[in-house]
Amino acid sequence: MPGGDEPHYLVITQSLLYDGDLKIENNHQRGDYRAYYGGDLPPHVDHGAAATAQIMLDPRARPAWRSCCRPSPSAAIAASSSS
After folding, report:
1. How far is CA 74 from CA 9, 29, 80, in A?
2. What is the pLDDT of residues 12-68, one digit of tens each?
3. Around Cβ 27, how many Cβ atoms within 10 Å?
4. DSSP one-letter code for 66
C-alpha cells in the first residue's frame, strides 16, 4: 500500500489521465484512490492566493480543490502513458 505523499501523487495522475485536469475534488468524491489505498484518504488541498481572494470577494464561492503536491511527476507519468 502506498504511503506518505505517494497516494496523493497517484490521485493527481488519475485526475490528469481520466479527467484531463488537476481538480482532485471529484476524484476524492468518487474514491478513485480506493484501488490502491485502504480506507479514506484525506485530500492534501491548497486553494492558493487566487482562491482566497475569490472567497473574500464572494464568501459563497467554492474554489476547485488543487493538491499541495506538485503535479510534475504525475504529468510525466500521464504524458508517457498517452504516447
Report:
1. 6, 20, 10
2. 899 989 999 888 889 999 999 999 999 999 887 766 666 666 656 666 666 666 676
3. 23
4. B
What contacts 24, CB < 8 A, 6 or more positions away?
A: 11, 12, 15, 43, 45, 65, 66, 67
Judge whether residue 5 has pLDDT over 70: yes
- Alpha carbon 53 to its chain centroid, in Å, reads 21
User: Taking the model in full, what pTM does it have?
Assistant: 0.68
Close Cβ partners of 37 (under 8 Å, ≥ 6 residues apart): 1, 2, 7, 10
Q: Where are the chain's structural domains?
A: 6-81
d(CA 46, CA 76): 21
